[in-house]
Amino acid sequence: MDTLDYQIITERENALCAEMEAFVRAHSNGHFMQSPRWRLVKEHWQWRGVLARQKGAICGTLSLLIRPLPGGWSLLYAPRGPVCDRHQTEVLACLVAGARAAADEVRGCCLILDPDVEESDLAAHRALRSLGFVCQRSEGFEAIQPRFVFRLPLAGRTEAELLAGCSRQTRYQIRLAERRGVTVSHWAGDGGIPDGALDDFCRLMEETGRRDHFLTRPREYFAQLLGALGADGRLYLARLGDRAIAGSIAVRYGDKVWYLYGASSGASEDRRARPNYLLQWEMMRWALESRARLYDFRGVPGREDPDDPLSGLYRFKKGFGGRHTAFAGQYTLVLRRGAYAALSAGLEMNRLWRKALRRLAAG
């Protein structure tokens, strides 16, 4: 392979950010969290981009979120990165060398990746391990990004084929929602989302969080998220009459669409109307209209277990015909061992504290 060089960029270098954005969006391994624009959602993080170049052309990128830590240290995190052919160790090594250089500027103690690499891709796993990364494989939702998802291939399929690929029960629930008068509206992130629509979604999200015992984001976060996604993001609301009874947020980026957030009313009448099925179907239709190659339902448990509190979520997403997918895991490269040991102890304490809070919330 010809000589590779890395280049570190900041958000102030508009032309280079635009070049990076074009590469990530067009690459088959591109991901919206690796877009330079994702930094706009993470206001408490710093950002650096690493470009690997060969003969002047970009052949790989790594978008780094940098979180300052006590003691003057920093944590570097590349969500669903890097974007490149992950079997090309030389390109990976170039990007990691750039990340190390960026880490030196901010006293980084570790670099964390959770690449969009399936567990079965042993070559990619070996390439990362050869560069010093240690893989951690969670069984649930303990990692930063979900390790297990459902994914639905869309290439070459029609809407009728997509519906036929759903389970019989799921097709019934979609039609039931339509018969019961559920209607779905949507707005693009750059299309002037009405304040009332965002208010309705946040109200439903807060209700869902109380019911299912998880902490929710504030309204400002969702406004910032949709603004950063722009035309690539959509807010969906399902209504029964004039009442919003469910909502969701989806993102389209490159040749993929992801279901990001969902919320719903817990009232019996609203749940019987099955709005979540129609919402999911409308997001899938958007993916198909956008000529997306893949629709990602995002996180689910690692296996179907009727005793798991999230078994209903698993069955719901499974019913749309996707393939259960396990990612390789979360990879950590330790850069400064003493600082990383202190960070790990703090993160473990934080994990136990959050677990205790969830138990208290469950009552």
| General shape | globular
Largest sheet geometry: 7 strands, mixed
Number of strands: 14
* Element string (H = helix, E = strand): EHEEEHEHEEHHEHHEEEHHEHEEH
Distance between the termini: 59 Å
Please mark out the parts with pLDDT under 50 across 5 or more consecutive residues, or reply none: 356-363
What's a concise summary of this model?
The protein has 363 residues and is an alpha+beta fold. The chain has helices at 14-26, 89-106, 122-130, 159-164, 168-179, 195-212, 219-229, 268-272, 275-289, 311-318, 337-362; strands spanning 4-9, 46-54, 57-68, 74-78, 108-113, 134-136, 148-153, 182-188, 233-240, 243-253, 256-264, 294-299, 323-326, 330-334. It is built from eleven helices and 14 strands.
3D structure, described in words:
With 363 residues, the protein is α+β, with helices and mostly antiparallel strands. It is built from eleven helices and 14 strands. The protein has helices at residues 14-26, 89-106, 122-130, 159-164, 168-179, 195-212, 219-229, 268-272, 275-289, 311-318, 337-362, and strands spanning 4-9, 46-54, 57-68, 74-78, 108-113, 134-136, 148-153, 182-188, 233-240, 243-253, 256-264, 294-299, 323-326, 330-334. The strands form two sheets. It has a seven-stranded mixed sheet with strand order 1-2-3-4-5-14-6, sandwiched between helices. Strands 8-9-10-11-12-7-13 form a seven-stranded mixed sheet, with helices on both faces. It starts with a strand and ends with a helix.
